[in-house]
Amino acid sequence: xxxxxxxSQEVTKKPRVDAGNENDLPAVNVAITKKVSSNAAAxxxxxxxxxxxxxxxxxxxxxxxxxxTKLPAHKTILAAMSPVFHTIFYGSPKxxxxxxxxxxxxxAFEKFLQFFYLADVSLTFEHIEKIxxxxxxxxxxxxxxxxxxxxxxxxxxxxxxxxxxxxxxxxQDSLVKMCDEFIKFETxxxxxxxxxxxxxxxxxxxxxxxxxxxxxxTEILEACIRWATKSAQLNxxxxxxxxxxxxxxxxxxxxxxxxxxxxxxxxxxFTQYTDLCTNEELKDIIGIAASDAYQPKFFTRKKFWNIGExxxxxxxxxxxxxxxxxxxETTTFSSNKFLLLKGFLYANVYTFDxxxxxxxxxxxxxxxxxxxxxxxxxxxxxxxxxxxxxxxxETKLSSHGKNRxxxxxxxxxxxxxxxEIRFEQQQIPxxxxxxSTLKTALCIEPDINIQFYPDRNLxxxxxxxxxxxxxxxxxxxxxxxxxxxxxxxxxxxxxMPVNPPPNRNDQPSTSDHAVNQNTLNPVPNxxxxxxxxxxxxxxxxxNPRFQNNFQGIQANLxxxxxxxxxxxANLQPPGGPANAP
Length: 581
Prior knowledge:
The protein is an alpha+beta fold.
């Protein structure tokens, strides 16, 4: 076709864009590159999991039996994540199409293969030890970290020892630290488990060297004696009971914190175990308890910190403003570290008279509030049937006073779990108000954070509202004991609102009406509205039991010695107390 013919055809076809206007087309930037998400590859990989149709390698279990079990897999996928598999399949000499497995059951290996194919894996305690062994054997460190995280998130008194053993063996430092913190907070419960009684001496020594516990010294000593008794029974040693206890403890016996016993505890222990120590050893214990200047001959001087006796920190959430109190008010929070919740403060409440446009204190007939503290299910989308109630009680809301709830037994706040403090009031009077605009997150230390969450049963976000204004927490004892403070040092009494509630729906506006301060009798705090976010943090102080160098024990030293003299005199054979100290 000639150029002339081609040109005539162009004119006849009437192109969409006239040739003379080509320069008017918008320029296309061919350099633009953007990433878009797609799960197509993940879905395809998931379909290959245990799929025998495309498999090019099989793992064989029970090769010595007539019908062994075989798990299908794909060399390329396994080799991409594991350098060991890469060497097996593509090294020299190359492995054949079947690999025999003798160090793990088929169920554990099947779960191990999940890491290569699935985005979400399913783990159980039944096979976790073998799975971590396979992760280490085939050098799949990301999978090892996932197993460590699984153990850390599911710590309990029945799993903490196996978790600690695996964490220490496979150098999972974060898991070991989690176990350490768990034992410090759950000491009493841990001492009662069979896992503790059957643990090895290395584990017992590790616990004795922690120095921080949530139990009494007597509980520590009795737990160690039970451990030694169990160890003697396992070794079929029964003669001379107390001698076997000392033999099983060995040098650990002299690391027991006898010197930290009070007068009463001392009497209780050595009345029950009269032949546990020699006279010279008893003198050594008394010397340790009496003075820091005393140089022990037998026992190691131990510093003991009972975190359950610490006063803790007050974390204040209040910023400003007021909100309408409902029949049910919830506060849900979590921590990224182990903490102890010793109690909390809740806000004062007031009634608002719309006709008089004033706040008034509530009267003594105000309904009683039921308080419940709940440990929420790990799966935030699941129903509440699996939630655990940790505390229940009742209180009377008021317009003045501390409004404080102190827990007789502190509640352990575990990382990753959510905790709910629920207030339920029956037939609460309308127009009952208290503070709102609470902080949705608090920081105790750069690495200790408290996060608050909305109640998923509500159709609105209540994260920054609720009755709980202060949490009384005990931090991990290794934190700095210096005192930090942010904002003004207010008393534990919560201030009442100094202005009417903001204009929300039928609530009164503050623009045209003043508040009768004489009617309110407010706590002096004229600058609370509009002030900076306020909260106070009190860092843990050292246990005064040691700050005072056992002054209480030293003051009662004479009484201890007299009690000891009488006790030994009763044990002497005929002939007099020749060996009495």
